[in-house]
Amino acid sequence: MNDKKVLKDLETEGNILRHPAKTFDFFTVSRYRSAKTLKVLPPQQGERVLDVGCGTGELACLIKPLVGKQGAVAGIDPSANMIAVAKHKADKLKLTIDFRLAAIEKIPFQDASFDKVYSTLMAHHLPVSVKKQGFREIRRVLKPGGKFLIFDIGEPSNVFIKLMASPFLFFEKHAYSNSDAVDSNIKGEIPALLKQAGFATVRRLKRDSLLLFGLMEYMIAD
Ligand SMILES: C[S@@+](CC[C@H](N)C(=O)[O-])C[C@H]1O[C@@H](n2cnc3c(N)ncnc32)[C@H](O)[C@@H]1O
Question: pLDDT by residue (tens digit) across 122-135?
């Protein structure tokens, strides 16, 4: 695995991460976040699960043993480096996971293919137009009664969080593009966008105060 090798990314209006994928897990406490996410919505034996914007595949690799041989796990990401690292990780762990170079705009699976879809730290990379299209795609690939867990930047719930998180928000807004991607998260627009995409209910869950002082929010849509 060599991050320096030039791999061809898929075209998307989302912000593809350019940092070396190999150091991503360390700097974003990926293992901690993934374990926490699975406590919020645990996958069950035999389920079919998709991780959208799967990055280095950390979450997908934790899900696979939980769904067992009868279940199946897939992960999509438009970043070729991320998908290469994810495939390498799954190979090393001898896990069968269907990692594909693909974007939320056009999810390469049939209607009603999955019991659960997860997306962590991805939504704030998508302009509003892509969020709208992508959430519709997630609704399409979920089975009736299926659940979508989203973990991302939420509307700061008080001035303290807003102040403490402001350097991070400034970086996220300006590092990738000047689109409305991060702003729509901060303004708390995600629940309304999920409902527009066809989800009947959106539950906003307790925040993790360890992660950016509680800026990050879990939501489950179904
Ligand atoms: C901050 S990383 C999070 C990765 C992983 N979900 C995690 O929690 O560690 C955001 C990911 O979203 C991906 N991404 C950007 N635009 C996307 C799109 N249109 N569809 C799917 N994923 C996208 C990026 O390539 C990147 O891997």
Answer: 999 999 999 999 99
